[in-house]
Amino acid sequence: MRRFLPFALLGVSIMSQTATLAPVHAAALADDVAPADHTAIQAILDSQTAAWDAHDMTAFVADMAPDVDWINVVGMHWHGREAVLRAHTAFHKMPMFAHSSMIPGPVEMRGVAPGVILVVDHTRLEGMGPTPGGGTYPTTGSIMTLVFIRQGGRWWIAHGHNTNVDAHAAAHDPSRPPG
Fold first, then answer.
1. In b/e form, how buried is each residue of 73-112, taking b as 16+ CB within 10 angstroms?
2. For the segment 117-156, what is each residue's pLDDT rounded down to a tens digit?
C-alpha cells in the first residue's frame, strides 16, 4: 500500500490539474497575445521569411534559442541552433531549396503560459527543385508549429515542427463540419 500511495496521489494531482486545464485552454484559444508580443513574434516570422528567401541560414536561425529543438517535414529532429544551421545550410545548397522562396500564409498565436506563446504558421514554398530522391516537392504548403519563449527581454523560438500539407487528406478532414 505504501508503494501505491504516491502513485495514487500523483494520479489525483494530475486529474485535478487536468480538470483545471480545460477552461484555461478554452480561454487561451482567443487571441490573448498582447499586441506588442504579437508584433515582436510576427517580426521574427517576417525575418525568417526574408532569411529563407535570401538563403541566409545564419539569419534564419538568429531568433532560435541556443537549445532549440527542430523537426523538419520528413521527421529529422535537430537539437540546438548549430544543428539547425548546419542542416538548413546543407539543404539550401541542394537544388531542392537553392532557388526557393517562402510565401507566408495565415498565422495563429495564443498564450499557453506566462512567457510562452504557441504559433501555428502556414506557409508555402515556390521555386522548388527536385527532392534528393528525384521527386517533386509538394506545392500544397506546410504548417509549422513554433513554441516561443520570452527570455532576457525578448522572444526566442524554443521548438519548431514543420509538416507538409497533404491536400487529399486535408479535403477529408473529419473535424470539419459537414457541408
1. beeeebebbebbbebbeebbeeebbeebebeeeebebbbe
2. 999 999 999 999 998 888 888 888 999 999 999 999 999 9
